[in-house]
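Note to self: the last two entries modelled the partners one at a time, which told us nothing about the interface. This time every component goes in together.
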Amino acid sequence: MSTKQSKPKPEQATVRCAIYTRKSSEEGLDQEFNSLDAQRESAEAYITSQKAQGWVCSPKQYNDGGFSGGSMERPALDQLIRDIEAGEIDCVVVYKVDRLSRSLMDFSRIMDAFDAHGVSFVSVTQSFNTTSSMGRLTLNILLSFAQFEREIIGERIRDKIAAQKRKGKWTGGVPVLGYDVDRSGPSPRLVVNESEAERVRAIFDLYLEHRSLLPVVKELADRNWKNKRRETKKGRIIGDKLFDKSMLYNHLTNTLYLGLISHKGERYPGEHEAIINKDTFERVQKVLKHNGRSGGAEVRNKYGALLRGILRCKACDRAMTHTFTTSRGKHNTQYRYYRCVGAIKSGACTCPSGSLPAPDIEKVVVEEASALLTKPAVAKHVLAACPVIDKAWAKLEVKDFEGLWGCLIPREQARVLRLLIERVDFDADGGQIQVTFRSSSVGVGATNNGKEAA
Ligand SMILES: [Zn+2]
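The predicted structure of the combined assembly is written out below.
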């Protein structure tokens, strides 16, 4: 480090030094940048070390807190220039060159003003002498680096975020439903918000139940469940909105819920707790992926296959799938059947069930279910779980099951059956249909009912 008075004044013993400090607001992101106090302390120590040369620190402070070095619009710098013009200062001391300016153009203008008044300039942490051409070259190089550094700050912040994500750290942004941000530690981290986490799990379950986005969106709207609410520092509310399909999709595919942090396609174990278990998450992804191709459960069930997924062939212990044929006559009449998967795969001769006309077996099962629905407790359970029925009931004032059933479209009917019935076994040998109700829907004393096939 060296310094030299541009105009040595032998008769004047004291060199009046002004310390200029600056810190921009965005530099607060990086702790490496020194606070105004630290800059001042360091400059004061330097001035003290030059005491023998007659250096004294001016009591006046020139601090620009929260001002960018890329602009000249700085109150403390204005004051400094005015005091230099008034002849009150002999030397300006800064911690680092870029504190004075980050722009080469601005810097040379400031230097011109200093020169005009015989004021020298010292950077505590960088060695140069502004009175020589070599010193000016050094300055230019330093400033070029300062400018370069500013340009790559954005890049460094991005790198830092990537590094933090690899370590599984939450790097900010709006937290998602189920988590809060704990800012008490050295770095913010996600903590589970229990009541919200409960909802998140319910949303995943609802999707597995409906196997389609839209019914879940409707269900969530009925429950008035909204996405994460957040208040900004300025008091603005972000989020707190009803779910739409894409918002729901984003929640259902968010690997944060698995306890992971993802970055550019890579996933890292996060510091936060998972809300959704791996099995549930993967099942949801599977259905989402499948629906992406087929357009959702409603589309696939447009033929009103009420027993899809619950009807089984007892002899083969395999599922019975829904199929249909269309007559080529004038009316294009459609005939629906349930066929045993065993029969389809291994040949009809291996299975006694063959093809069952769908309307017949559906009628039997619906009758079973309607009998169950006459029990108030069961009806209450179904109403609570199926808002669509609740509405139909209220709107049409239907008091009987048959009237209500007719109001429902096939997929709603299918939904009610799924809610009540765990499985239906078709026993071809005895011509029996065995309906197994869900214990949750019939409560204590659940029984299996057998009934002769129609
Ligand atoms: Zn079979």
